[in-house]
Amino acid sequence: xxxxxxxxxxxxxxxxxxxxxxxxxxxxxxxxxxxxxxxxxxxxxxxxxxxxxxxxxxxxxxxxxxxxxxxxxxxxxxxxxxxxxxxxxxxxxxxxxxxxxxxxxxxxxxxxxxxxxxxxxxxxxxxxxxxxxxxxxxxxxxxxxxxxxxxxxxxxxxxxxxxxxxxxxxxxxxxxxxxxxxxxxxxxxxxxxxxxxxxxxxxxxxxxxxxxxxxxxxxxxxxxxxxxxxxxxxxxxxxxxxxxxxxxxx
Length: 250
Fold this sequence. Notes:
With 250 residues, the protein is an alpha/beta fold.
């Protein structure tokens, strides 16, 4: 199985030297749960696009400093890929900006959240039990957040998978919850606490102290990134099995 990682943003240069880029963060996340998945990377922010929507067996769309409303030239190509993949049952996983641009491409609306920044460890209440949880369901998951923008209006086929008090549409499922065409999440399972700490510090001119200080204190809490890695990889495996079964039946 081959999953394509679509890089939509760059780690700030002052942090990349210490922490690396988004690509190895996602590689570590996925391989921590399923080392047999092959990973192909594309820097779509630099106009490096796959040849087609089915060049890989599934796609992960990363976070970015950009907003979907920036409407940069490379975003139209990414939205086209998202629509084509979704229409043809090639599974999609979106994280942060990836979560937002899937919603935007499929008919939702993304805006700057009036409540300001979400950062640090947030707890997300699970609303839908899914097959890829495979006996590892929990009432809530704790993950690292770093965003101002949010999905405000849902696409027609989207359902809320999980939410937090400050992010109503934090996790989305597209289509049948038992076999969705896409899943996405606003928080960052690929981040670790030290990167989040340094990222918050680097944005001291933008994130008010009344938000940044509690966020940094929250980094002492354990996060559910290993669990989320298992859920994501199991989702890909199950979606691929269903797609192959459908192809044989046809």
